[in-house]
Amino acid sequence: MKITDVQVIVLESPDAYGASGSGEEAHGIKYLGLVKIETDAGITGYADLETQPHVAKAIVDAPSEGSVSGFFGLRSVLIGEDPFEVERLWHKMYMGSVYYGRRGAVMQVISGIDIALWDIIGKAVRQPVYKLLGAGYRDKVTAYASTLFRSTPEGMAAASRWYLEQGFKAVKFGWGVFGENRERDVELVAAAREALGNGAELLIDTGWYVHRTAKEAIWMVKSLERFRPFLIEEPLSPEDYDGYAQLAGAVDTPIACGEQEATEWGFRMLIERGQVDVVQPDLSRCGGFTAVRKIVHLAELHNRLCIPHSWTSDLLTAASLHLNAFMRRAVFQEFNVTSGPLNRDLCHNPLRLEDGMLRVPQAPGLGVEVNEATIEKYRVA
Question: What phi and psi, each to the nearest 5 degrees, are found at residue 314?
Answer without folding.
Answer: -65, -20
